[in-house]
Amino acid sequence: MKIQHAAFSAAVVLALSSAAEGYLRSGGRRQKNQKNQIPKNQKEQNRRQNNRGLVLTQEDMENNNNGVSYENHDMNYAPLSCNNDIDAASCDSTTFSSLVASSSSTPGSSAVVVPCGTCVTVDIVDGSKIELPRGLEVLGKLHFPSSSNVVLNTTHVFVQGILSMDEPSEGNEVRINFYGTDHQCLLPAMMCGGEGTGMELDEDCIHKHEVGKKAFVVAGGKLDIQAIDPSCPSWTKLHDVADNTQPSALLFDGTFEDRDVGDVPWTTLVTTLWGDLDIDLEVVDAVESHDDGDGNIIVNDNNKALSQSNRLNDYTGLTVKVDRSKLVNTYGMDYKLSFRYKISYDDGGDSSSSPFSPDVSSYLLLRSTGSVTNGPTRYGNDNEYIFHCDGDGTDAEGRAEASDVWTTCYADVHLKNDHSYETAVPNVRFHLGYKKEVDIVWDDISFHRAGYSSSSSIVVSSEFGSCVREGDDILVTSHVPMGWDKEIVSAVSSVQIDHDAGTATLIIAPGVPEGIPTLTSLDPVERVFAVEVARLSRRVIFEADQELYMNMTTGQMVDEDAYHGGHLMMMHTPDVVQRLSGVEIRGFGQHGFLGRYPIHIHMSGDVSGTVISKNVIRHSNQRCINIHGSNNVLVSDNVAHDSFGHCMALEDGAEVGNVFERNLVARTKVHKVEMLVSMHTGGLSTTFENNGTSEVSGPSSFWITNTLNNFTGNVAAGSQVHGFWFDTKQFVRGPSYHVPGNDRVEPETQGLIAFKDNAAHSNGRKGITMYQPGWLPENGAALENVASYKNHHGIFFHRNRNIVVRNSIFADNKVSVRHFVNRYMWNTLEDSIIMAKSNDAKSREGNDVGCFGGGDSSSSSVTGVQFAYNDAPGTQLRLHNVTFGNFDPDSISCPGGVLALSPWETQGQGPVGEPMEIMPTLKDIAFSPPAVDNSFDIPCSILDGDGREDIFLEDVDGGMGPTGNPGFFLQDAPSMKTFVDPSACHDVRREGSCADYCDGVCLRKLFVSARPIEDIEGGGGGVVDYEMVITNGLASQTFEKGAASKHPDRFDAVLPAGNYRIKFVSTASGEPVHPAVDSVTFGEEPRCSGYITEKSIMLPLKVYQRSALC
């Protein structure tokens, strides 16, 4: 049947036949054929299991009774031949408004169609709203010139031709809003009859493709959207915070000869509304304010006042009033009231006395909104506050020493929870009582949330500032450790460019926190810590109505924050260059649905030349920019703020040659659902590990599933879990696995194109993660110039090998580097800096850092490098030319070890029987300032009851020890120190630590494996318990089997240089016994000289005769 091209409602695909569901449950194959698909080996079985439920076979598609096409990964779309000469066609002969009018007058359910071979210009310039209830389908070319100023409301946009946009002119805007809940079907013109006329498509075409609701889909077509000046950067570093222009002062005359103040007549008091007097009375920055729906926080500036009480009494007062406006949830918060004043005593008053008197209280008054004067109020002793005054002209007690000089005062105020009323929001008033005969000039009166201001003047580069317009939204990233949700979104009210200085000053509200790190406030080495400032506004906006995500089985709402918006997908279109630049995408993505993202390049193979740049993604319900089965895309200078799940993502692990450069991501959030739904199979749910994405509980700002890509200059500025996640699997997953050749790709062993100049900060858990199952580059890989700061973990190595991190900086993390259970071939950190606390943080916080919960030094302290000590030889971390900074008590109140053991292997999780002596290798380690007492931490608490006595660390050049001489850190345990000269050892233990340092000793690990001895005399068929005794002629020490290594048939000992005799004795009787000894081996050779060797150990003759050593 032929129909006029129309959108097809395909909600039916969500109710597939039971037969189709059976295909999916059986891995996309008919169950009757399962016997023919038994894997030949375990590896092939693993490959198949890794990709179950993600693709339908051709047989499935041919037997699909719904007539809807799901993923057929051999089917691609191409440009339509009827558009071969489209660039030569005139775009002025047909206008978009005429197409819309024609569609509106056509009976039936027609979409607005741009015919193939035809170029159409959008001619709407007055901001009109155009309703497209049946969608917009571009088969030819649709061009939005800079004069376009229009809002399109539509159910979908399909592009099989060309959609191009120029940057709208100043004052113009192009908005495309998507709405509706019907799932749409794309009828591919090249397969469904539209190639010739470009209009008439076959509804019964077997190639129609379900693409979901609120869909913006490119299939065989091309986007050419260049809607921004290419010289405009999307973000920059904060250069400085400037002082706002100080307001004029206000004089209250004690004689009241002039009863008009600010042109307001005097009655019983002087009242001046905000704005009439130029007083810097700032609005309260409450926890919540009014949200206008676009993410803009609106705080009214009305109804704030200054009141001067009459002077009939001995004391008068100034009342500062802040009305509620839109202020809510202020209780329990800390605020600051501050002001300046200067006084004069024209009537002969004592200039050495304070204008404030202890007889007159200054208090906070909370009045229920809407109450009468005598209504419910709370004030008095529990609301009184104390002024702290300093500055010119004051003494230690805050008294003015001379008249006509400025004094600055402030009071810290806490709005207690018991100040609240059940149903009312308070007015806030401060009463400042002072002597009536005093004339006071008030200035800079401010009441604001502690640490914040209602507005700020921020300084940025002129290159960035020149692209900012009044009314734009600005993102200022978090500077708070682990503060993934502490960013600020502000509106710009003024832009001033200083071309000579190369800077721009933006006035924004709400303002930035006091002391926020800027380029000018930081030391040169720490300038990377300056917060980022991004412009969130664009003149081309794609947005979508939001609907709550309903569980398809129960019909219940999943979560109040789980929404479905629109999605943009360029699918199955290889060898076509796409350009998407300068678009603001709001509320796209569909929560919990894989395949429904704000920007999604899907299964398109090689798309060299494609550019996704300078876009803004805001409030995404599912991911941000997703590259799936597509290669050689440039993703550059984009900003993403407030998203669920992985943000910048490589989906299957087959994607290569892509470049992610200079992208900024902030506020990456954990999903509200426990299981993601795969849309690769027509909307059915799959239960295999959320398709291997791991993002439900562990989202990342940058999800790296294949390292043959380039990541340069990106910033992960606040993820709830991971910043950058190297999630390289053994096999390619998802539909990409079925692309020829991908079944032989092993992402976990791939090399690296580039990872340099990237930063991760303020992430809830890990700045950089290499885990699950681990990255194992065969030929090595280097991460260069990394900055990871203010995270829980700076970088996390687990099951990795052959990775170098160089020229990097880690600071203000709980644990800067965590390294354990890695593979053969060393990982290395070189030419880098690790700081317990940055100089920036010290300047703002002193050393009073909040220690971490846990109650022991391993989990509560700040640690430089945390490592496992039972990794296999060759797997530990190498530290070369690394400087550790500010680990001293003067810098941080709860320093842990510069190097510290991880408690992981002492909790029953470590590999049983592996050697215990493997420690990091250290070369050219420096400390600034010296870290005498905590350069190596052996937390006592993690060893309690464990029985291990075998921990030591060599200090080759003496750079870590307290004396500056080479030696060893070692565990304070009897078996470790029996043969060590006590005079050589120094107590470097801080509270909770079990480490000593011994000069000049040379330690090495000894392993003795011995067989069980049958208890012949006991007659019970048991074994004799026995111990190993080592002596050097001067001292002896007993060692229990398995005590240190947990190996049931092995004795471990740590011995200094010397000659030793070994014997074995019964645990019960102390009599000698002679077990068969299978091996006597040693740990890795230390770098000191004189360590023990085979020649140092003597065993009893009977042991030799019974053992395998002879």
UniProtKB/TrEMBL annotation:
First and last residue of the signal peptide: 1-22
Subcellular location: Cell membrane
Entry keyword set: Cell membrane, Glycoprotein, Membrane, Signal
Chain ranges of the G8 domain: 109-238
GO cellular component terms given for this protein: plasma membrane
Source domain of life: Eukaryota
Keyword Membrane part of the UniProt annotation: yes
Pfam families per record: CEMIP_beta-hel, G8
InterPro entries to which the protein is assigned, alphabetical: CEMIP_beta-hel_dom (IPR055401), Fibrocystin (IPR052387), G8_domain (IPR019316), Pectin_lyas_fold (IPR012334), Pectin_lyase_fold/virulence (IPR011050)
Region (Disordered): 25-56
Every CEMIP beta-helix domain range: 564-768
Record PANTHER family: FIBROCYSTIN-L ISOFORM 2 PRECURSOR-RELATED (PTHR46769:SF2), POLYCYSTIC KIDNEY AND HEPATIC DISEASE 1 (AUTOSOMAL RECESSIVE)-LIKE 1 (PTHR46769)
Identification of the protein by name: G8 domain-containing protein
Source organism per UniProt: Odontella aurita
